[in-house]
Design goal:
Elements: E1 2-3, E2 6-8, E3 15-17, E4 23-24, H1 30-43, H2 50-59, H3 67-74, H4 90-107, E5 113-116, H5 124-133, E6 140-144, H6 148-157, E7 164-169, H7 176-199, E8 206-209
Length: about 210
């Protein structure tokens, strides 16, 4: 059970605020919990692939899930799902657009800096907005990469954007503590890398955090 200061109203576009106790109760029975745990074990196993997910769907009895009750309770929660259909959720459509407009406005300002941490850019609308904003030559974006695999993933998404810098660590996974300790080292490293970039202007810069972190 969780509490939130609001819930969807009875009409489209309506949000009912409640700063007392707006409760959303989504529970699973024992069989449902076991099924969810088995599926979660696949999602969190780096060695699993889509083949394992397909096998799960083929071998498990999904009829034990009470889907109708789940969606009945879930749809009471004022949440924007990270899918294309978020634009069809009329309750939050206007608010979502306003947030994106504000983000776009800030990124278009002179000498803006955007630092991302823990964001995958899997949301294509936000990705497109940021890529379009990178046409602002005075904007600099620092993308924090959890590991080398994510570094390659992000470089592919922002290939050709010279004002995108990638932050990663060569001494293990980049967590938030390591990121915070590295902030003071970015400027001097950037000056040295700017000299290198001048000789190779077509390469996207990556700010590497040293092994001492």
């Amino acid at each position: 059970m969780c509490s939130r200061p609001g819930e969807k109203g009875g009409r489209d576009g309506e949000i009912e605020l409640n700063y007392g106790s707006s409760n959303y109760n989504i529970t699973f029975d024992e069989n449902e919990n076991k099924l969810v745990d088995r599926f979660r074990s696949i999602l969190y196993d780096a060695d699993k692939t889509n083949i394992d997910i397909d096998a799960f769907y083929q071998t498990e009895d999904l009829t034990s899930l009470n889907i109708d009750v789940f969606w009945q309770e879930y749809n009471k929660i004022p949440i924007v799902n990270p899918t294309k259909w978020k634009f069809h959720e009329t309750v939050f459509e206007e608010a979502y657009y306003q947030i994106l407009r504000h983000l776009s406005y800030e990124l278009e300002r002179q000498n803006s800096v955007l630092v991302t941490f823990g964001f995958s850019f899997a949301d294509e609308h936000i990705l497109t907005l940021v890529q379009r904003s990178l046409s602002n030559p005075s904007l600099t974006m620092y993308v924090s990469c959890f590991n080398e695999s994510e570094l390659r993933w992000m470089k592919d998404k922002f290939n050709g954007y010279q004002n995108v810098k990638f932050i990663y660590s060569d001494s293990g996974f980049l967590n938030f503590s390591k990121f915070n300790r590295s902030i003071s080292t970015l400027v001097p490293q950037k000056k040295e890398r700017d000299k290198e970039a001048a000789a190779q202007p077509n390469e996207t810069e990556a700010v590497e955090l040293g092994g001492s972190l």
